[in-house]
Specification:
alpha/beta, Rossmann fold, 7-stranded parallel beta sheet, 6-stranded parallel beta sheet, about 45% helix, about 15% strand
Length: about 375
């Protein structure tokens, strides 16, 4: 098959899932092309590690302007560029990874002499859409052949927004075994924290309102929070300067550190005790799956997408989303938990990764969907 992936950006968990899919498909003999936006926009952009992995595998990566911005002129320009670049290649299936990429896929299909199946993965709904944007995205999702969500919670959300249940499938994200690389020197600070008797937290993701690191900093600085808590915040984003200033003003700068973008962020789990995810919005957090793979329990907000995969008192602790007092209570519980109890949680987390969230399960789920779509009458 010739599989065309169209995404907004190769970024974060979605970028990892797309890259893993494309690499596996190429390794099993399929022709694979990946399309992404050329220029970043605010906190959004392509992670160099995903571009490098695709390039190293010989996979074509086409960067256009734009699969992200809601600008009709740019959409038409991108469509023309793709039509010209892909001329003469017979596409077997188009896999899109957001609604605007689906618009480009529908344009490409309308220009084709044969019906090409289109599958869209809705990696996350986001919290910045206005009513018109939401209605546009739902209409585009309803026009493709099938919509995939990484979680049951995301599927229920789309049902409430108007996408038919029988038009959707669930394929959870999966992560493969960790391939050890050189240990980042930044881990020395985390190890010093641990040797000093601190409970070490790590929070991974784009720093901004969606991941809500502000709440975590407020909770650590709270007078009722344990004083021997330390936190590594891994990721970049528009809120970093403001949150750095907040950390200094509250006097916790000796135990809260910003590490910026790290291509090997999962390695930070090696030197921490808990992953903390205080998010307001998620699809299916890849960072939790990576923590489970490492045998690490999770402290997470109780938004549906996190509550779906964190089992309270078994693989982690949930707190009320957006509630500082509830997060302080969760942090206190984590800090006071004995090593044996935390180890039991870690073992349960590792078992859940093996059972539900391995890379093999994700690849198998998509392979079955692809096979069913290419068999549809054209």
């Amino acid at each position: 098959m010739h599989i065309l992936h169209i995404t907004t950006f190769l970024q974060g968990g979605a970028g990892c899932a797309i890259t893993d899919l494309a690499l596996n498909q190429a390794a099993t003999g399929h022709e694979v092309t990946v399309v992404t936006s050329r220029r970043g926009e605010g906190d959004y952009g392509n992670y160099p590690q995903w571009l490098e992995k695709l390039s190293a595998a010989g996979i074509d990566v086409l960067q256009v302007d734009s699969t992200f911005k809601r600008d009709v002129a740019l959409h038409i320009s991108a469509f023309r560029h793709l039509r010209e670049t892909l001329a003469g290649r017979e596409l077997s299936l188009i896999h899109t990874h957001a609604a605007i990429p689906s618009m480009l896929a529908l344009l490409l299909r309308s220009d084709s002499k044969r019906r090409v199946p289109i599958l869209q993965t809705m990696h996350g709904w986001g919290i910045r859409k206005d009513a018109l944007q939401a209605a546009t995205d739902i209409a585009l999702m309803s026009a493709v052949d099938v919509v995939v969500t990484p979680s049951a919670a995301s599927k229920r959300l789309l049902e409430r927004l108007g996408v038919r249940s029988d038009h959707m499938s669930i394929v959870p994200y999966g992560v493969g075994p960790l391939r050890l690389s050189a240990e980042p020197p930044e881990l020395d600070l985390l190890r010093r924290w641990r040797s000093g008797g601190y409970t070490v937290l790590v929070c991974v993701g784009t720093v901004g309102s969606r991941k809500n690191q502000r709440l975590l900093i407020e909770a650590i600085a709270d007078s009722k929070a344990p004083v021997r808590l330390a936190c590594a915040i891994v990721g970049e984003g528009e809120d970093v300067p403001t949150l750095r200033a907040m950390v200094q003003q509250t006097g916790i700068d000796a135990r809260v550190h910003f590490f910026g973008y790290q291509p090997d962020a999962a390695r930070f789990l090696d030197a921490a005790d808990w992953l903390v995810l205080p998010s307001n919005d998620e699809g299916l957090p890849l960072s939790i799956l990576e923590a489970y793979r490492a045998g690490m329990p999770v402290i997470g907000s109780d938004i549906p997408e996190i509550a779906e995969i964190v089992v309270p008192h078994e693989t982690g602790i949930l707190f009320r989303a957006g509630n500082r007092e509830s997060l302080v209570e969760a942090l206190s519980t984590a800090a006071n938990l004995g090593a044996d109890a935390r180890s039991r949680m870690g073992l349960a987390a590792s078992g859940l990764w093996t059972e539900r969230y391995s890379l093999e399960r994700m690849l198998s789920g998509y392979a079955e969907l692809y096979e069913s779509l290419v068999k549809l009458p054209g």
